[in-house]
Every structure is written in C-alpha cells, then in structure tokens.
C-alpha cells in the first residue's frame, strides 16, 4: 500500500509543475562564438585532420640529391652523427578585430601561396643551353667533429657559373672562391641534366601541378640515414631555389608543393647570412634534430637564402648551433665563364 502523498499521482503533479515553470522561464540565448577564435581553432583542427589523412607519398629508391656545393674543408664528415605536421597557426597580439579578440597569424600554406603568386608573375628570361647561370652568394658551412661539436667557418663570398647543357658533360661549372677559380668537373662519361645537375631546361620539364610535382620530388629523393624523407624533399627544394634560374610556372609549383609537406611552419622574423631580415619558412627534422629555414624578403617575397641549425644538443653539439647559412647576393644569366651580369669577362 502506498503512503499518503506518494506514488503516481504525486509524480504526475511534479512533472506538470516543472513544465509550467519551464514555460515561464526565458528561452536560453544562443551561444555567440567570436568569429576569429572560432576560425582559428577550426583551422588548427582541419590542418591536423589533413595531416593525418594525407601522409607523405610513397617513393621509389633513388640516389640522394647532392647538397649545395661547399668547399671541401666545409663538407660534413661521414661520422655516425644525425645532423645536417600540420602548418603552424598561433595567435598574436599584434592586431585587434572588431570584437577585440586576437587575430590568427598567417599560416605557412598561405605565405607560400602568396610567394607562389609572385613567382608566377615574375618575368624570367629563358636560359639557352649555350649560356650559364651565374649566382653570387655569401655563405658559411660548419666542419663537424666526431664528438658532435661543430665549428662554423667565417662568412665568405662565392661565385658560381653553372653549365646549362642537357647532354652529359664533364665540366659542369666553375667556382670563384677565396681569390681562386675551381672547375667543377665530373669523372667518367659526365653527368646529364637532372636532379643532380638541374638546368633551366630540365627544371622546365618538371610537373607544374603541385601534387604531381611533390610525387616526383619524393621519387627523386633519398634521405641520408637518420633523416626524414620529407626533410630530404624540403632540402632538395631549397637547393633548387638557391643556385638556379627557374621558369615562373615551375617556381610557383615548387612553392605550392612545399606547402603540402608535413611539418612546414612560418617564421615571423628570419635572418639570412647577409643579415637581412624577412619572413621564413622552416621545417624540423625530428629524427636528425636539425631544422632548415628559408628566408624571403618581407615586401617583395623574393628568396634571400637559408640556414640550418640544431634543434637539440647532440654530444658536444649545442642546441642552436648553425650548421650552414647562405644568402643570394646576385643572380643572372651570362654567355661565358668568368663573365658577370652586366660586365665583361675577367
């Protein structure tokens, strides 16, 4: 037997009272999410999802691409030392939106897309096979020791003339450094134009679709032991940008392809070997504990140079140690070795 005032009758009365009170209360207001923070967090989430769903393309084994030609004294020894993601989005306090919230910073993908747009509109004169690409640079490389420590050589200027002949050649170029000229000669039957000797004509043969180009770059690249495949591709792109002249549509494609690499980030203030400040694009090789950073002019978005440095201490090597830095001072097309753009041969 139920006690007085309990049971189904009382329960029904309580529910009716709650419904009546609910009708009297005002409807809850919709949550107003500020647009900028919402877009920022949505952008971060979508980038993580995209990174997870778009792994690095599979690639066939290939010969490792050669790094920029350094003087023999600056080449890294073959020691057993490991040397050399989502696009980063952070909030900055540099500006305010209409609702007073911080605005999301430009991502690496957006910056690279702007750089690609400028590159595509750049007027570049095609280079004939009987001509040479000339690049004057300022550079320094580190000599690495077995204990992991490194010593950065003093900065010095270098001039290089690069052959544009497509067929295999023995003399592929000439270097002027420390007051002397050094011919760049290949043994055997010579080296044809290709990833190990990029010419204007060979560069023009690369795909201009960023996805197809990225697949091709992965196919042509083989990382050194202890290095990431994506980092090897990133470094290869840096080499192609540094001491070559590239057709505008191919330059645009290569920047767009770089934006698709995992772990590429934007740097607010990057400095090249000449001390010029600009914006940067960087990628860290977590396996090798090193990072490569490209530097672009803040206004023109022209490629200025790059640098490599340690991201962690390795043996006697310290975090932040510079392994290589490079700055393009002049680039042009000439008709003969030892000729400078706008000048006669010497």
From TrEMBL:
Residues 11-22, 29-42 have a biased composition (Basic and acidic residues). The keyword Heme does not apply. Keywords: Membrane, Transmembrane, Transmembrane helix. Residues 1-42 are annotated as: Disordered. The chain crosses the membrane at residues 73-95. NCBIfam families: CU044_5270_fam. This is CU044_5270 family protein.
């Amino acid at each position: 037997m139920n006690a007085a005032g309990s049971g189904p009758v009382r329960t029904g009365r309580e529910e009716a009272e709650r419904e009546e009170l609910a009708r009297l209360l005002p409807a809850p207001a919709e949550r107003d999410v500020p647009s900028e923070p919402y877009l920022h967090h949505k952008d971060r989430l979508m980038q993580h999802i995209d990174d997870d769903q778009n792994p690095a393309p599979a690639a066939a084994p290939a010969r490792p691409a050669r790094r920029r030609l350094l003087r023999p004294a600056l080449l890294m020894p073959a020691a057993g030392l490991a040397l050399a993601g989502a696009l980063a989005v952070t909030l900055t306090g540099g500006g305010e939106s209409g609702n007073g919230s911080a605005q999301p910073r430009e991502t690496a993908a957006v910056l690279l897309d702007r750089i690609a747009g400028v590159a595509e509109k750049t007027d570049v004169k095609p280079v004939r096979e009987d001509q040479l690409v000339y690049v004057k640079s300022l550079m320094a490389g580190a000599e690495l020791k077995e204990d992991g420590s490194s010593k950065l050589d003093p900065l010095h200027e270098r001039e290089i003339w690069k052959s544009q002949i497509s067929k295999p050649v023995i003399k592929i170029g000439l270097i002027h450094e420390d007051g002397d000229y050094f011919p760049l000669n290949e043994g055997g039957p010579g080296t044809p134009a290709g990833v190990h000797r990029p010419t204007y004509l060979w560069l023009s043969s690369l795909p201009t679709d960023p996805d197809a180009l990225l697949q091709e770059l992965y196919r042509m690249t083989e990382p050194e032991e202890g290095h990431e495949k994506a980092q090897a591709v990133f470094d290869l792109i840096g080499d192609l940008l540094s001491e070559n002249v590239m057709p505008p549509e191919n330059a645009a494609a290569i920047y767009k392809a770089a934006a698709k690499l995992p772990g590429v980030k934007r740097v607010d203030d990057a400095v090249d070997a000449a001390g010029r400040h600009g914006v940067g694009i960087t990628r860290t090789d977590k396996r090798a504990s090193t990072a490569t950073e490209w530097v672009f002019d803040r206004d023109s978005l022209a490629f200025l140079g790059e640098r490599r440095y340690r991201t962690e201490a390795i043996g006697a090597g310290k975090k932040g140690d510079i392994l290589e830095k490079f700055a393009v001072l002049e680039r042009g097309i000439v008709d003969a070795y030892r000729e400078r753009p706008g000048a006669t041969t010497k």
